[in-house]
């Protein structure tokens, strides 16, 4: 009798085959493992695509299931037995497609006066990052986006984020206001003392040259913290 681990897709009952199951019942009836198996198309010697997909999405490789996929690099994927360059590229493209779909959906309601709207739009760009990344959004007189750029990578603190760098960019692009975003890889968006200090320094510097810091939004894991929304800017103004 054939060992279950070496069973091929063709040897399975028709209703258990991912392709046939999708055709008969619809993609929504496939499990995460079955969906990934369909995209992988083939397995490897001694391991069909379902077994391979199961290995990818479960510990020790996929400790967070589907959420593990966007965090992987080509080098990490290639370390999984049965995953070569072609399958690595397929998985990386799947993650990128999912990110772009989420961003495209969020863009439909994008409003730079709404912290929730901004956070949803940039969520997939930032929440899977393993290091802190700060983005600078430059806005015109109508609060429309002129440009965006990464201004820091690493730990966000007063030595890595220079107000001078930010406002040189803002002046060159004729921006009248700016918004800062950065992520917390821990998933908890609560601002640190360095986050608050950096925000205060940038806001004060902007006030001197007439470029307003509208908000500093910290992205966590499917959550965010807006300093303006939480009253930080109002408290700062009251303390002056």
From TrEMBL:
<dbReference type="InterPro" id="IPR025657">
    <property type="entry name" value="RadC_JAB"/>
</dbReference>
<dbReference type="GO" id="GO:0008237">
    <property type="term" value="F:metallopeptidase activity"/>
</dbReference>
<dbReference type="GO" id="GO:0046872">
    <property type="term" value="F:metal ion binding"/>
</dbReference>
<dbReference type="InterPro" id="IPR001405">
    <property type="entry name" value="UPF0758"/>
</dbReference>
<dbReference type="Pfam" id="PF04002">
    <property type="entry name" value="RadC"/>
</dbReference>
<keyword id="KW-0862">Zinc</keyword>
<protein>
    <submittedName>
        <fullName>DNA repair protein RadC</fullName>
    </submittedName>
</protein>
<keyword id="KW-0645">Protease</keyword>
<keyword id="KW-0479">Metal-binding</keyword>
<keyword id="KW-0378">Hydrolase</keyword>
<feature type="domain" description="MPN">
    <location>
        <begin position="111"/>
        <end position="233"/>
    </location>
</feature>
<comment type="similarity">
    <text>Belongs to the UPF0758 family.</text>
</comment>
<dbReference type="InterPro" id="IPR037518">
    <property type="entry name" value="MPN"/>
</dbReference>
<dbReference type="GO" id="GO:0006508">
    <property type="term" value="P:proteolysis"/>
</dbReference>
<dbReference type="InterPro" id="IPR020891">
    <property type="entry name" value="UPF0758_CS"/>
</dbReference>
<dbReference type="InterPro" id="IPR046778">
    <property type="entry name" value="UPF0758_N"/>
</dbReference>
<dbReference type="Pfam" id="PF20582">
    <property type="entry name" value="UPF0758_N"/>
</dbReference>
<keyword id="KW-0482">Metalloprotease</keyword>
């Amino acid at each position: 009798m054939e060992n279950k681990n070496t069973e091929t897709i063709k040897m399975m009952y028709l209703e258990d085959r991912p392709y046939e199951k999708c055709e008969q019942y619809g993609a929504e009836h496939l499990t995460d493992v079955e969906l990934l198996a369909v995209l992988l198309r083939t397995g490897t010697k001694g391991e069909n695509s379902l077994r391979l997909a199961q290995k990818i999405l479960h510990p020790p490789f996929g400790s967070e299931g589907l959420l593990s996929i966007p965090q992987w690099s080509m080098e990490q994927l290639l370390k999984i037995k049965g995953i070569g360059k072609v399958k690595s590229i397929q998985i990386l493209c799947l993650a990128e497609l999912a990110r772009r779909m989420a961003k495209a959906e969020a863009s439909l309601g994008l409003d730079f006066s709404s912290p929730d709207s901004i956070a949803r739009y940039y969520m997939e760009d930032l929440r899977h990052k393993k290091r802190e990344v700060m983005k600078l959004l430059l806005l015109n007189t109508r609060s429309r986006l002129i440009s965006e750029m990464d201004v820091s990578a690493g730990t966000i603190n007063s030595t890595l984020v220079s107000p001078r760098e930010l406002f040189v960019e803002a002046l060159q692009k004729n921006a009248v206001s700016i918004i800062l975003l950065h992520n917390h890889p821990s998933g908890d968006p609560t601002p640190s003392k360095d986050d608050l200090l950096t925000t205060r320094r940038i806001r004060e510097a902007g006030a001197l040259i007439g470029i307003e810091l509208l908000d500093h939004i910290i992205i966590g894991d499917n959550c965010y913290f807006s300093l303006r929304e939480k009253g930080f800017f109002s408290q700062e103004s009251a303390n002056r």
